[in-house]
Design brief:
single chain, two-stranded antiparallel ribbon, alpha+beta
Amino acid sequence: MPKFIDLTGQKIGRLIVIKHTGKDKWNHSLWSCRCVCGKIKVATTSDLNNHRIQSCGCLKTIHGLSKHPCYPVWKEMVYRCTNPNHRDWKDWGGRGITVCRRWRKFENFLKDMGECPAGCQLDRENNNEGYSPENCRWTTAKINSRNRRDNHLIEYNGKTQCLAAWSEETGIHAHTIGDRIDRGWSIEKALTTPVKRRKNKLKLTPNKVVLIRQLYSTNATLSNKEKLSQSQIAKMFGVSEYTIWAIINEKTWKHLL
């Protein structure tokens, strides 16, 4: 049974918790709360902790915008930055990401950001700063995904961007760029060396795939001079380095595992 937590005196949205009033038929704790408008509202512990209820109902009538398409975006933004019980708290409020005071009201958020363009998402330009008019924008899912703090950023020629963006700009597959850097290539060489295209590319068969994995696995028993690189194996079988990487790392031909 979960430990009982006394919510008396806590302020949640426009509500102040007055006292515990028992339990409902599902054994959920009930709390009597006073809204700033003066009305009394009874709510469960879960509804209060998750901010599903923040007023007696007057909050919806104050701005009349709870059905607005941007309202769920704003609501989720506030919850993950202010509610420790939110599933993503550790990545947002838990690491210091806040919502500016002005944006605690939906009307102000909508006035500053405007309508969300079709197919766009809310994005922070600087992922280490909070939500504010100066740091937020509507952007596409593609740009938003490239602005994640866990992306591998590469700086070259005065420009810093993620691996996927460099791949798009250079025409070299992201896995190829990453593999080159992991093998000690300089950033310049990894981004500017063209990928060799083979005219007579051989079709792989299940037997060849098994052989490729066997060849690579034997590297563990060989000296550095005897070991075969992914590049050498690729040349032996007339395929790209990325194909060898995908086979070895079990990204393809999984049915032969």
